[in-house]
Amino acid sequence: MTININDIIANLPPERKARVEKRAAELITEETTLQDLQKAKIIPGEDIEVRAIKMQSAAQMQVTKDIDLLKAMGEPIYYQNGKQLIKEESDGRKFEYRLREDGSEEILGKLS
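RESULT FIELD:
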């Protein structure tokens, strides 16, 4: 009899299922990062400056992948341009916002 891992996970209590899914996401991220480092061809013993540039490039590739994934999931992207806080919706609309003391967002205006 074949055991399907998805069936096992589906029958777990909600708390345990959430922990399993969180850990799976961490492992996938770790594996992706290792693959990105291998793609960047970071070689032990090479010049530190060259290695730093390659690591920065690999990190930027990962950030780009993460942003694309969030957009595909319909999640907004938050970033800062100087002192300006920006919220970019998955459809490309951009808004300047500020955080209120209670943690909520106040949209100050739409950006072009």
